[in-house]
Amino acid sequence: MGGDEGEFLVQKQSFFGWCWSWWCPMSATVLRAAEKKLLSYLKTPYRGWYVDIGSVVGTSDKIWTIALNVESQKMPLVLLHGLGAGVGLWCLNLDAFASQRPVYAIDVLGFGRSSRPDFSHDAKEVERQLVQSVEEWRREMKLPKMILLGHSMGGFLAGAYAISYPERVKHLILADPWGLPPKPPADETKRSKLPWWARALLFTLEPLNPLWAIRFAGPFGQKLVEKARPD
C-alpha cells in the first residue's frame, strides 16, 4: 500500500559492535522492516521519502516523511510523535486522518529513520534546533500553513514551534503534551553527602537517554516495557 524511497548505508562492524548488534539487534534495516509492518495495516496508500533540510544541526540533515491523500486541497495535517517513537506511532490513526485532508507524519530529527546528528548539550539550544528543523521541513514541503498535532514530547515541540512561527499554524492540537519547567539549580550540598559510589553512578547516568535501560536490556527490553507500562 505504500512506497518507500529510503536509502541505507551498510558499515563494517568491530567485534564489540557485532556482539552489541547480536544482543540488541537494531539497525536501519530492522527499523525499516518494523515500520513497514506497522504501516501494512493502512488501507490508504502512502508514500515515504527523505526531505533534505540542510545543515540545521549536522552537515546534511534529512527528515523521514510519509504522506497520505496529498491530492486533497484542504489544510494539511502534520504529525509530530513523542519520545522514542516514529511515524509508526500513528498507524491506527492515519486512515481516519487522511479521509478528510492531506496528512504528513515525520520522524523528528534524531529519531526513527531521520538523521541522527550530534545535538547541543544545552536544552534551550536543542529546543531551538528541533523547532528550526520543523520549519526547514515545512519550507522544503512548501506548506504555507498547517494543522499541527503533537503527542507527548511532540506536543512540547509543536507548542514551541507554534510560539516561534504562529503565522504557519492554522490549528494546534496537543495530545498528552510534555511541559518542562526550568531546571532547578543543582544542590551540591545534598550531592556531596552521598557516598562516593552513588556520586559516581549519578555522574555516569546523567547524560544517558531516558530509554537507555530498554536498549541495554536487549532481547528482554520488550518484557521490561510491558512490566513498566502494562497499558
From TrEMBL:
<dbReference type="InterPro" id="IPR029058">
    <property type="entry name" value="AB_hydrolase_fold"/>
</dbReference>
<dbReference type="GO" id="GO:0005811">
    <property type="term" value="C:lipid droplet"/>
</dbReference>
<dbReference type="GO" id="GO:0055088">
    <property type="term" value="P:lipid homeostasis"/>
</dbReference>
<dbReference type="GO" id="GO:0042171">
    <property type="term" value="F:lysophosphatidic acid acyltransferase activity"/>
</dbReference>
<dbReference type="GO" id="GO:0052689">
    <property type="term" value="F:carboxylic ester hydrolase activity"/>
</dbReference>
<dbReference type="GO" id="GO:0005739">
    <property type="term" value="C:mitochondrion"/>
</dbReference>
<protein>
    <recommendedName>
        <fullName>AB hydrolase-1 domain-containing protein</fullName>
    </recommendedName>
</protein>
<feature type="domain" description="AB hydrolase-1">
    <location>
        <begin position="76"/>
        <end position="216"/>
    </location>
</feature>
<comment type="similarity">
    <text>Belongs to the peptidase S33 family. ABHD4/ABHD5 subfamily.</text>
</comment>
<dbReference type="Pfam" id="PF00561">
    <property type="entry name" value="Abhydrolase_1"/>
</dbReference>
<dbReference type="InterPro" id="IPR000073">
    <property type="entry name" value="AB_hydrolase_1"/>
</dbReference>
<dbReference type="GO" id="GO:0006654">
    <property type="term" value="P:phosphatidic acid biosynthetic process"/>
</dbReference>
